[in-house]
Amino acid sequence: MLEPDPMQNLSCYSLRKSELWCPMAVKRRTKAYIPKQILNAIERIWPDGVVEIGYDLMEDSYFHQLYPKLHRSLLSIEGASLRYERQAKEQREGEDDWDSADADWSDNLPINNRTYSYHLFFICPEDKLFRYEAETEESDEEHPDVEEVVAGEGFIGCVVGVSLLARFAVVGLNCFDEHEDGSHTCPGLDLCAWGEDGKRVTADEYFRSRVGEEGMRLLYNLRDRIAKILASHRITVLSEQDQLKEVPWLRVGEEVLREEGPVTVKDAFFFEAL
Prior knowledge:
This protein has two domains: 22-51 and 239-274, no CATH class; 79-88 and 109-237, no CATH class. 29% of the residues lie in helices and 25% in strands. It is built from eight helices and 13 strands. The strands form four sheets. Strands 2, 4, 5, 6, 7 and 10 form a six-stranded mixed beta sheet that branches. The longest helix is centred in the last third of the chain and has 30 residues, at 203-232. Mean pLDDT is 84; it is low at 1-21 and 91-111.
């Protein structure tokens, strides 16, 4: 009988008794799970073990010089369009329309006053299969208590996050809505979707129910072409498996916004902060 591989579960493992008293043992054991290229980048960027917005890292990023060429490459994808992109920092001077005394001020902070460790692109196929009717509700300026329905159009495609901290990227499936009043949704790197039974479903499951198998084939093809473009610019796309690997010696700074739980490889390179 084959014995189970102790490294088989890379994102969730149990500690040996000796490791409960020796954090360095945990670090050494975890390092064996993380590819060397990724591990070297983590240790270079976060030598103190704290994930936080480092403005020197952002301003001196390789990405600024690379961006024009990468942007042109993504624009040139045949049969697809670059529908939306968001810079790492989009704060607009003079926009102080939020209440810092609000108990939930960090949740209510305007999205463009947050800083991201990555640049985001949204690219979608031009086929009508990947478009749908969308709408949103906006308050009437003269009657704030009255909600007006604003029509729009939605797009299904690939969301691309390129880290400014190291030459890594993530590519996933998501959607993006544009409305007639000029407003739009801001797609994230992860999709939160639920099935008819109320259970959370993966992005693949959700969009397969929207576009079918042929549509998924086209989306996967687009994702592969994006990955090849990124590779041509020496940017490595992290696999889903590598993204989920835990980095237990890392912790996040107070300004970093994330859900509770262990810090992962993805958290080390892709995060948002106040």
